[in-house]
What does this fold into?
Amino acid sequence: MSMRGTRWSASTFVWNSIIQKKNRIFLWLMFWDRLNTNANRTKKHWTTDPFCVKCPAVASITHIILHCSLVDHVWNKLDIKQMALWSDDVFYFVGRIIPHFSHQRQATWPICFAACAQELWSAQNQRIFENSNTTVS
Ligand SMILES: [Zn+2]
It folds into this structure.
């Protein structure tokens, strides 16, 4: 089963047994843009501020995971910062990056991406709701 007509399988990726259950549910909601980002909270009239707490950009999941100034160092450490910056969508970022990895890295990429994405999401929420300056390194 694929998602949005692309060749890679989000279902296989997300429901991979090597990923912790809490990360699987997070990833599924993220790929379907069902997380309560400021952009989505604005659409639901829960807030009037759709912007990122750090950048002058709408806080969509793509911004939070790929483009925010606070996440550059995470993707830079994995040597995939440029691919993150050039990607318009988290789903396509994940699918596009898989063929560029070695077989060993392809096997661990779901765990790595899930952990990074969930931590970036948690840090963003702490900044919004707890007025914290939490970073992910
Ligand atoms: Zn930002």
Summary: The chain has a mean pLDDT of 87. The chain has one domain: 10-129. Residues 52, 54-55, 57, 63, 68-70 surround zinc ion (CB under 6 Å). Residues 10-129 form one domain.
